[in-house]
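Key idea: predict the complex, not the pieces.
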Amino acid sequence: MRIGSKFCIFLRKSTVPIIFALILSLSGCGSNGSRSESSGSDVTVRTPEYTEFSELKGKTLSMLTGAPFEELILSKVPEVKEFTYYASMPDMTLAVKSGKTDAALTNNALSELAVNREESLALFPTPLKEASFGIAFSKENKDLAKWQAAYDSISQETKDLLWKKWTGSDESKKVMPQQSWEGKNGTVKVAAGDTLEPMSYAGEGGRICGFDAEMILLMAKELDVHVEFTGMEFAAVLSSVQSGKADMACGSIIITDERRQAVNFVEYYPAAFVLIVRAADAEVSSKDFLTSVGESFEKTFIREERWKLFISGIETTLIITVLSALFGTILGFGAFMACRNGNRAANVITRFAVWLVQGTPMMVLLMILYYIIFDKVDIDGVGVAIVGFTLVFGAGVYGMFKVGVGAVDKGQLEGALALGYGNGKAFLNIILPQAIPHILPLYQGELTALLKSTAIVGYIAVQDLTRMGDLIRARTYDAFFPLIAVAAIYFILAAVLIALFKRLTFKFDYTKRNRETIMKGISMHD
Amino acid sequence: MLQISKELIGDHLTVSIAGRLDINTVPELESQLDSSFDGVSKLTFDFSDLEYISSAGLRIILSARKKMKSDNAVVIKGASKEVRDIFEVTGFSSILDVGLL
Amino acid sequence: MIEIVSLRKEYDNITPLTDVNAVINDGDIISVIGPSGMGKSTFLRCINMLEKPTSGKIIVNGQDITAPGCNLQKIRQKMGMVFQSFNLFSHMTVIENIMAPQTDLLRRTRQEAYDEAVRLLKLVGLSEKAFSYPDEMSGGQKQRVAIARCLAMDPDTILFDEPTSALDPTMVGEVQAVISELAGTGKTMIIVTHEMGFARAIANRVFYMDEGGIYEEGTPEEIFESPRKEKTRQFIRGLKVLELTVREQRFDFLGMQTEIESYCRKNLIPYRMSRHLHLAFEELVQQILVPGMDRPDIFCSIEYSEKDEKVLFSVSYGGDEIDMSGEDSSLALSVLKSAVTDLGHEVSAEGARKNHVSMTILP
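Result:
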């Protein structure tokens, strides 16, 4: 079934961390809430639990899912107990804090921020590898040299200040500058990762901010162009550049040989692979339950007016769901009507399309639509999602009508035809009303399934409800509250949708009528 | 279809016939009788369980009677109403001793 | 007037109608009878084009309705149909069933349609059921509503497709009574039925269908009293027929005996009669006829009439006449005579098998 697959993946892969996260949130281990007011803008120096690679022998080491760095670790630590993988930074840092894992591999930007925020964490003193961050350009893009030159013209001092600003824990400083220059040379589209704090992430009001983003603005000012950021999943940013949907991509991208084969880079800041470990003097602070829940609530909804992110996510989710349901119903019903009278061409086409759509995983279908079919077409992710879900819902509606109409006795059509009804009128007046009670329960189920399955649109750079939950999670390092909030909102949306649907369709169900409606406008004089 | 059983007491042979005696089953009875006439001076057909007899069956009784020395050496017993009717209409009952038992 | 010209209907694996021709005059009431599976219903469903004929023409008041582009809806509005399975619209109450075609097709107002529906419900005696759903009624009531719905369109012709076949025996009468009532209104009616008494009483013409067409037609008296053709006679009298052909000296006597046996058992022919039939077959065919023939050509027909509880046995054979009273046959003949009566003998002038022997098997 196509229930919010992303949600599903998350649950499957990290059941244990989630449970941990729940316990931690409830027991008040999270201590980051109060740090934003403190002054420390420098890198915090704290004694790590381990300082030599040899100490990591036989320990558990972790990295983000999909990061292929086992070899790198094994080259320094020949023997580890096991590797574990986490879907997001918040999950992984929680795992380190709770002792679930002993060290977590990330890049210098992410780790510095994590350590600055979390008193109980420290940086392992020796980096595993040095590299460079990059801004990705399509291979065809001729402007790369100009941007490189612009970067080189910025002073090292400015760059370092910028680095400190974004990796520090003083949230009040983290404000993006206005694009106050003229922008004579046009606008560039930048695909930006939106959960990669501090490099590139959705900040207040969902706007992209971070070290990468501000650096691009500095360069853009030199070149006098305006920048339009589009936030998306990290997995999508490079594809966006390759398919031409964006001119440039940023998001904590470390330049590797493999990536160089796909895109060109402006090299712009030293990167390093480092390990996060627990601090040697880590002490468990305790907060009572209510305070902790209150803090989580504040972080998730109130701070930076994050409730607005939820609202805009709900809007997007609803737009996709309702429009897909509407168009899908029209499409499915139209296909059914075209096939009903045994038109060969219509039947062959419909059967093929249904087979194709139902045989393809929804996520793959969306990505094919977004990156291949609508590659060069000016249509945003929401539009593509509506097209994709319309196809899927249409296939479902077509099937429902087949089942529903098939359940009506053949004699009903013959009875109508013999009275002199035309084929169409017989269908609309006689067959359809009898099929509808069979169809409605199926339709209702399909509608809720549709609502939930839209949760994967994050893969094509759409900021729906689930995605908003991810963004907030990435900022608060708190798994519990945003996830529960998202789940609850889906639940309420589904209930509201079903209630509306029932009101809307009540009168189509002939079994729910009474004598007054039947005899409306007739005087029964005798 | 046809079951035949024979019982010889002294010179008296009793042949019990059950089932249908028609063109299909007559040859079987014929072969059974041919081997049994030596030293027999009295022959009784027990038709208690005979369901059906046609002219082919009558002929074999007729030929059995010819083989016996004395005229009244062949006795029919136990014939049902239907079978007796056949003996009646064909005049067999006047040349044979057709008894109920 | 409805003319049916060379109507043929083929399905993938069966051809129920090969060549049907008929003229149905206005006001005719026609009963269509015949054995099951002989295309009676197919014929009826072709008349209103629910089945598309393979070839042939159906001309309704001068218009060929099999022609492409013919306005079938208009034709069907004037030609109602009553189905074996009623086909009432199950999502509507009784009153709506009768109103819907009027408002949907005749542009009557809801009030007009309602008034007409009330009148028709009264006619079929179901006024109190106006707000019932079809599922809540008995078969007989449903069929009466179906007739009322059909009448609401004020048709010139009504086709009845086995209207009482799906009913409990206790409900057949109420439906037949309503149909009989309609017979006096001057509408043309074509009724496919298995109820012989009803078929005879209501009709002015009867079609007997067999062999892919209208095998025989006539007034009810003609068809039911003195049918001219063999199959009609057999059907009307409820005759069960067994036919046997002997073509060899050493034919399969045992096999034929078995056939006669199972024929008797199937038709519940009494034991004594079946024994007499066996005797008659064995003595006449096996003992008398076959021995006198080099190449036998004997055709036997056994007819059992349920109505009269009588078995007729007739034999025709080719070649020279056989002397049945000859010396060799005397025993067989006397046995034969014990089993049959009315033994007759004649020789016809024409045909391959000129010699005919017939008899009635004794009970």
